[in-house]
Amino acid sequence: MARASRMSVLKRKRESEKAEKAARKREMRELEKEGGNREKEPHSGEATQEDLEAYGILPPAEDDED
User: Fold this and answer.
1) Which of 48, 49, 46, 45 lies closest to 62, judged by CA?
2) Are 14 and 21 in contact (CB under 8 A)?
3) Model pTM?
């Protein structure tokens, strides 16, 4: 019987890890698709009006409720 070389064992291991990673990624995509109606936290990197006011860059917006 031929003995498997170390390189072929490592190659099989890499391939199986890659396949598992792809399966996890597909699973996560399916979960996101199912729960797509949920409101996601925006990750645009842009500061909101509240952020700018908190940092003191803009003066607080005043409500005209007299």
Assistant:
1) 49
2) no
3) 0.45
> What does the alpha-carbon distance between residue 15 and residue 8 come to, in Å, rounded to a whole number?
10
Residue 60, C-beta contacts closer than 8 angstroms, at least 6 positions apart: 53
Contact 27, 21 (CB under 8 A): no
Helix or strand holding residue 5 (H, E) = none
C-alpha pair distances (Å), 25 with each of 1, 13, 14, 15, 63: 38, 18, 16, 15, 47
**Stretches in the chain below the pLDDT threshold 50:** 1
C-alpha dist (Å) from residue 21 to 11, 18, 25, 27: 15, 5, 6, 10
